Amino acid sequence: MNKLEYIQKSNAYLGRLVHEIKAATASGYFDINTVAEDFFVPILAELYNCSDLRNQNQIKMNFPAVDLGCRSSRISFQVTSDPSSAKVAKTLKKFRTHGLDADFDHLYILVITEKQANYTSKLLQEQVDLLPIEFSVTKHIIDYQNLASKLSDLDVNQLEKIYDILEREFAKKDVHLEFRSQLEKFLEFSQSKLEVEKRTKKYIPSIFVETTSAKEQMRFFANPMFFYRRIDDAIERIDLSRLNELLELAKVSNVESKIDGIKSLPEANTLVELESRLQDQRDVLCYTKDLVSSFSWRGKGGKKYEPSKNSEVDWEIFRYPIEAKGSSIDRQVDEVISEIDLTQAKIFLITGMAGQGKTNFVCDLIENQFSAFEIPSIFIPARVLNDYPAPNRILAFITNNRYAPKVSKLHDLLELLNNIAMENQKPFIIAIDGINEVGALDEFNAELKIFLEAVCQYDLVKVILTCRSEFFDHKFAEIFNEPFSEHLHRIQDLRSKMSKESRRRMLRAYFEHFSISLRLSKNAAKFLKNDLILLRIFCEIKEGAKSGYVSEIYKGDIFEAYLQKKIRDFPIVQQQHVLRSLYKIAEGMLDSDNYSQLSTQGFEAVEIQIIEQLIAEDVVLRRELPDTGLSSVGIENMSFTYDELRDFIIAYYVMNELSGSDTEKVENLFKRLPHLPIYEGVFRYIYVLARKSEHQVILGLCEGFPDFLRHYIDNLPLLSAEVQNEEDVARVQDILSSSQDAQSIRSVAWFIFRRRDEGELLNAGLLVNHINGLPEADCRKFLEVIFSSPDDFQPGIWRRRINDLLGSLLELPDDEKISVGDHALAFALQVVGYADWEERENIFNCFSNLQSKGQAQPAIELASRALSDTTQLSISEITASRAET
Hints:
Elements: H1 3-26, H2 32-47, E1 54-55, H3 56-59, E2 68-70, E3 75-80, H4 85-97, E4 106-111, H5 122-130, E5 141-142, H6 144-151, H7 156-181, H8 183-190, H9 193-199, H10 212-222, H11 224-236, H12 241-249, H13 271-292, H14 312-344, E6 347-352, H15 358-372, E7 377-381, H16 393-399, H17 410-424, E8 428-433, H18 441-455, E9 461-468, H19 469-476, E10 488-491, H20 500-513, E11 519-520, H21 522-529, H22 532-541, E12 549-550, H23 555-569, H24 572-592, E13 598-599, H25 605-617, E14 621-624, E15 637-640, H26 643-661, H27 663-672, H28 679-693, H29 696-703, H30 708-714, H31 726-737, H32 742-753, H33 764-772, H34 776-786, H35 797-810, H36 814-819, H37 822-831, H38 837-852, H39 857-863, H40 869-884
Parallel strand pairs: 3-4, 4-5, 6-9, 6-10, 7-8, 8-9, 11-12
Antiparallel strand pairs: 1-2, 2-3, 13-15, 14-15
Helix pairs in contact: 1-7, 2-7, 4-5, 7-17, 10-11, 10-14, 11-14, 12-14, 13-14, 22-23, 24-25, 24-26, 26-28, 28-29, 31-32, 32-33, 33-37, 35-38, 37-39, 38-40
């Protein structure tokens, strides 16, 4: 093109720019100035011959008076859409008061819409006169027309540069406009992977129960414009007046903080304004903390206030209330600073063990929380990144979308996402779930660092990452050494602070999702609520169960039923291969003496396929860290997700495969078993499985262990009703009658006390009958043993525990008292005579009341058989009270 063509086309672009800026301003897009600053840098650099022109706000946040500056040519620019004289006067005043004439000899006011026809304001002229550098309202206030006129002064090469800049920027603008028009469809497609997570049951919406702490933290991170008012409320509650009153009484100088100045700041209209506002608040809070912390119990860096000799007496008098109040304020300030840091964080990292709900947490955020607040987001299950080429897997995944912008570089994509966020005034969030599931971890680690470093260069793009703890600590922990780590916030365990109510809701939600209507005993419910992986396994095997009562949870039975179900999920031709693959894993772990992981080397293709499917479900198997070195290239490591399931499968292999094919190997295993890390778990399930199958050889090997009795007592809860026999009854009675091992007596006594099902041979009736057969002295001694603890340091604590047990019974409504069972009620009558007077009277009244309703008589009859005089006296009290009534 010739010079005239370059000028005409460049002028057309400048005219379009002004039109779009006016439209954006009219639409309330107030951050257009910020966007325009970077747009004009290369153009002004060429037109005004200032080659190192820089955005000053990128050098220092909220740089005063000027937006762009060139230190070599000493030229500066203020970029604004406000053409008023007042705005110009304000800029000149700031330039002067901040002493910017030390850095710049020229100041131009670039009005990105259109400047006024004239600038005759008296106030403006006063500021011009005070300015230490030359400033002319006709020369130094410029708009697009001034820029257009300067084009004619350039040669063809310079014009070509200007034109190329404008063409490139508007090409990006056109891509943005096209992307903006397709955004809804782009986001819809980007979130379609949520449906895959649902189908594979990695994400089950109905069972999600979030922890309050994680929810609150995510609110500040993902939606600061909506939730920053909570920060204002928290600052409003910080009151130094009482602390200063106490300091005056102690003759100590007041804490002079500026905190009142940040309690009534103007509301933020944009994210840029909010960032500046929050930074101002944070600065004041940090200053306040420096002043207050010396009066807290912690003291900043361990440094606490030391009074002068003249005020030591007054200080000691008021020291405690001062430090109590100072500590309270110190904590308040810390909490608010943490909330501000969350709004400014760019990376939200969630780590935890398998089965802790990380995927459910993130998927619920995307589908419900972000959707409700219209926060644009992309969901990436990290395992699908294995299908994309390195080193740009994340970019390739995002752009593999027919509605994605036509970009080939990561920064071009992030700039577009940042612009979308700027328009919406909400961060654009990329959530990557399970980064440990990417195969080439070392390679991906480097790729992830580059990606996060790029993201942190954009104000409004944020990332959520989830990862298994052990993978992160081993492979990704170097992230904390990167410069961008200051923008990272980490939650290490989503479930660590889950309340009892949350666990109860979780159990109910699981049952509702899997259409389970079973009734659980308190013991069974507690068991499931405290083990989320076991809860998932239990629900899968009980799916659709509409009636029944579960008094106890027998892990061995659950594991066996679950494995049978998993095997049936495979095609018939593969089902035998599934069991053999699990046996092969168990055999490999025993042969290598490594129970934390096993290499897939040596497995056949069909076995690898089965293993991959089980890993994908992340309940039976999981992927582990690969070995390093050339010899391990292409070889994966795996392990069992749940250690107890591993122990069960190894025991199952020994019982059902090895014992029938290689008895010598079984005997050798038993010889070395006490020295293996899997000793407790594998012994437990070998014994239980041998009991179920009545395998006398294996039972003989188990019972031959010197510490068999200890194992037997520990594993009593695993003996289901089907395998209990009279020999178990005799063993339990012998243990209760022994006088040597108090811990064994305690364990067995409380185990059978919790067994209320009379359909089982091992039930609470054994305990009641044993106590009934003890004379007074032996009865008292036995009860003292089972209600005591090795850590007791005061005599008589065992009686308090009796009080507590009886108190828990008294708290129940009458119908629930009866539901605990006759044996439990009889036990209460056996021990009440050793309780304090108040508990005794309350229990006597309780049983008299139940008797009057025709209830509790079987329990009274059971306890009346006791040899103990104390128990007989208790029965007499109740009978006498009933007779009086």
